[in-house]
Design brief:
The chain is of the alpha+beta class. The protein has 2 domains: 306 residues, Rossmann fold; 117 residues, Immunoglobulin-like (Sandwich), CATH 2.60.40. The chain has 8 helices and 20 strands. The strands form 4 sheets. Strands 1-2-4-3-5-6-7-8 form an 8-stranded mixed β-sheet, sandwiched between helices. Strands 12, 13, 14, 16, 17 and 18 form a 6-stranded antiparallel β-sheet that branches. Helix 4 packs across helix 5 and helix 7 packs antiparallel against helix 8. The radius of gyration is 25 Å and the shape is globular.
């Protein structure tokens, strides 16, 4: 072989290898489909499912680590589609039209138009999600006949009866919160007559064969928005639950030729969970809010108790659900993953729930590459001379210490709510800067504590 031919062969092999590596790297895409904000983790692979998000703001899920991890794990198409609970068929048709638009835009993805869907709703959006799931466009009233496009329904902080119910054949998860005046276990189902609590309603459906789970998530309030700050810890159990549902419910191959028939899970074997509800137990992390007690789990075939039960999709989900119910903390998914701060801002004024004048602190306020430099922070606690710094973490924390220097000083020990630390402040004697040294902050899941410092130059 001549030197020239050898050189050409070398470059051909190198180019082929480079192309193979490039093809194997994920190719994420964000954009709009049929007017809906859309995201897919990897266009180099077939999509396996579609997550339909019916909540405002969409960032509640589109920026959440557990939702993004689920999307990547199953290469799911994530769509933010508003669904009016008074027009379920219109909502279902828009879902189908949006999926079809995906296949038209991405001609190498004929499976998109046929994907099974997970419908998620928050608060009143839960009614729209569940009612659209029951539309005959997605779920034939005969659960053994097509179409059966719904893989699961997930309700955050609300579940409704009557016309707003999901199909009895479809797995459903209610994410409830002990301190939520709208979605708590003992809160009545909206417009129920006679009144029935969320807890009793869910157990009634489960005892009728519906594959439905409820989990009590202490410290999340209504969608995690207490103190006008949305935390990011609502979806850890949902991720586990949906993983287990998908193991048995997701079609083994992408639905290229036609939609798959989601199986009828009414009376699904799975596992069962039973419990009582107690209040005023003065126990952390519930305080005096409602909590589950006397918790037990068993395979359906082995359950012999006389208490009404809820359904759980698998042994793994059942054991984690029990731990969460008893301890109020999810077992660590990645025990060695360091705790990480995700956001921090200064909130002036004496009302810690008033976020109208929030000022984000570095490094979370650093400009994007190529953007104009940020201005110095207005570290002004006027007119009250008080305020707070709020720091969010990637998961729930237990406690912490804070030392404050500069234009402000500490006005008491830090307060902890779920994954948010609140450092009370009052006006200091310094000028030109604000420095907050945080230390001994352990995650609630048992990981190692961390220390870090926030510093800002002030006007």
């Amino acid at each position: 072989m001549t030197p020239l031919r050898s050189l050409i062969l070398f470059f051909f092999i190198a180019a082929t290898a480079f192309a193979a590596v490039a093809a194997s790297a994920p190719k994420p895409w964000r954009g709009a489909l049929y007017g809906a904000a859309a995201y897919i983790p990897d266009l180099n692979k077939p999509a396996r499912a579609a997550f339909i998000i019916n909540t405002t703001p969409a960032a509640a899920t589109n920026e959440d680590s557990d939702w993004l991890a689920l999307a990547a794990q199953f290469n799911a198409l994530v769509l933010s589609i508003p669904i009016d609970y008074t027009k379920p068929d219109a909502g279902a048709q828009r879902i189908l039209d949006t999926l079809a638009a995906g296949s038209r835009l991405f001609v190498d993805h004929p499976e998109m138009k046929n994907l099974g869907v997970v419908l998620f709703g928050f608060s009143a959006g839960s009614a729209g999600a569940a009612r659209a799931a029951s539309s005959p466009l997605l779920s034939n009233p005969d659960p053994d006949k097509p179409p059966q496009r719904v893989l699961a329904v997930i309700n955050l902080d609300e579940i409704d009866g009557g016309a707003y119910e999901a199909p009895m054949s479809t797995p459903q998860l209610l994410l409830s919160d002990a301190g939520d005046q709208f979605g708590g276990l003992l809160t009545p189902v909206e417009s129920s007559n006679p009144p029935i609590s969320h807890d009793a309603y869910v157990r009634k459906r489960a005892n009728g064969g519906a594959p439905i789970t409820v989990v009590n998530e202490p410290g999340h309030f209504h969608g995690g928005a207490r103190y006008r700050y949305r935390n990011r810890v609502d979806y850890g159990f949902m991720r586990i639950w949906l993983e287990e549902v998908f193991k048995a419910r997701l079609p083994p191959e992408p639905p290229v030729a036609a939609p798959a028939l989601a199986p009828n899970w009414r009376g699904h074997s799975g596992w069962l969970g039973a419990y009582d509800v107690a209040t005023n137990t003065a126990s952390l992390p519930w305080g005096d809010d409602e909590r589950m007690v006397n918790v037990e789990i068993a395979p359906r075939a082995d359950y012999s108790g006389d208490r009404p039960f809820i359904w759980l999709p698998s042994e793994r989900a059942a054991k984690i659900w029990r731990t969460y119910a008893v301890e109020g903390v999810l077992p660590p998914r990645e025990p060695d993953r360091p705790l990480t701060a995700t956001d921090a801002f200064l909130r002036p004024g004496d009302d810690v729930k008033n976020g109208k004048h929030d000022m984000r602190l570095p490094p979370f306020s650093e400009p994007a590459r190529g953007a104009a430099p940020i201005e110095r922070l207005r570290c002004d606690l006027a007119p009250a001379g008080t305020g707070a710094v709020l720091i969010a973490f990637d998961r729930a924390i237990v406690s912490g210490e804070a030392s404050v220097e500069g234009v402000a000083k500490s006005d008491g020990p830090p307060q902890v709510w779920s994954n948010v630390m609140i450092v009370p402040l009052k006006a200091g004697v310094g000028a030109g800067s604000l420095k907050i040294a945080l230390s001994h902050i352990p995650p609630k899941d048992g990981g190692a504590p961390i220390d870090f410092t926030l510093a800002a130059a002030c006007q």
